[in-house]
Amino acid sequence: MTTIRVPATSANLGPGFDSIGIALELYLTVTIAETRADWLIEHEMGADVPSDEHNLIIKTALALIPDLEPHRLIMRSEIPLARGLGSSSSAIIAGIELANQLGDLDLTQYDKLQIAVKLEGHPDNVAPAIYGGFVTATYDDVEADAISAPFPAARALTFIPDAELLTSASRAILPEKVSLRAAVATSSAANVLVAAVLRGDLELAGRMMERDQFHETYRETLVPHLEQIRDRARDAGACGTYLSGAGPTVISMVPPAEAEEILDELQQLPLAGHWLNLAVAPAGLMVEA
Ligand SMILES: Nc1ncnc2c1ncn2[C@@H]1O[C@H](COP(=O)(O)OP(=O)(O)O)[C@@H](O)[C@H]1O
Ligand SMILES: N[C@@H](CCOP(=O)(O)O)C(=O)O
């Protein structure tokens, strides 16, 4: 049986709003079983996640090939829903790959990115889910381009709140316009962040992660724990702390040797949620026969 495996993602990394993201070592897997009369996707993600053709994975596949032959699918996911760790982008990428496998479409990574970005609207979570590692990407409503590179040795200390926050709700709070001053400050920080990552300079990249004025400023009211974690993480020796994707998850990037000590310190914060100590996933979408 063929299994499709897609990593979680963490988009934005502070100033890289809608253009920078990383893949993380938490996975969605979808195994393609036998054909049947109607679509069935078996999973343990609760009643809110459809088990028929209304499931996002199958809907995505059917958007590519409307008469795709129904199958039984088995889905397992370590990616929490609506937490800013790319659950919807992983489902979209899995759906595109499902159509690719069943329909013999022979899609390239570039083709998959073009389809995914049209469905998701921005490339910073779908691109790392396809390519893995650290990804910079751009989309002008016509074409998306993305480039992937290795991320410096680091651990992503990840706080996942108990409460969900839908990406649509977290985007609705953003303004139509930002000032030129804020745009220059933020885009220049994003440029330095990219250069620092390419040079393997986690300390500088981390400092740049805290220089966003495109989205975190406006989302603060939805995620009051961001500042709390950032302050404590800074004191404990983290390189940088940012809102993962549209939130509410918050990630502190730390040197591997200090990860356990910093995590112990962060876990003292009285917050409703749990912590994970994650690695950046060097590979994106994979298919195992
Ligand atoms: N594996 C999945 N199967 C079906 N639907 C999914 C899956 N993962 C995510 N979704 C859908 O995507 C929604 C979350 O998307 P979104 O608000 O963009 O949050 P996230 O930051 O997790 O991507 C879920 O409420 C669900 O409707
Ligand atoms: N740039 C987007 C990223 C959304 O990522 P998600 O993982 O939360 O879906 C945004 O900040 O809205």
UniProtKB/TrEMBL annotation:
Pfam families: GHMP_kinases_C, GHMP_kinases_N. The keyword ATP-binding applies. Its EC number is 2.7.1.39. Its main location: cytoplasm. InterPro entries: GHMP_kinase_C_dom, GHMP_kinase_C_sf, GHMP_kinase_N_dom, GHMP_knse_ATP-bd_CS, Homoserine_kinase, Ribosomal_Su5_D2-typ_SF, Ribsml_uS5_D2-typ_fold_subgr. It catalyses: L-homoserine + ATP = O-phospho-L-homoserine + ADP + H(+). It is found in: Cytoplasm. GO terms for molecular function: homoserine kinase activity. Residues 55-133 form the GHMP kinase N-terminal domain. Pathway: Amino-acid biosynthesis; L-threonine biosynthesis; L-threonine from L-aspartate: step 4/5. Signal peptide: none annotated. The keyword Nucleotide-binding applies. ATP binds at residues 80-90. It comes from the Bacteria. Keywords: Amino-acid biosynthesis, ATP-binding, Cytoplasm, Kinase, Nucleotide-binding, Threonine biosynthesis, Transferase. Residues 194-268 form the GHMP kinase C-terminal domain. Belongs to the GHMP kinase family. Homoserine kinase subfamily. Catalyzes the ATP-dependent phosphorylation of L-homoserine to L-homoserine phosphate. This is Homoserine kinase.
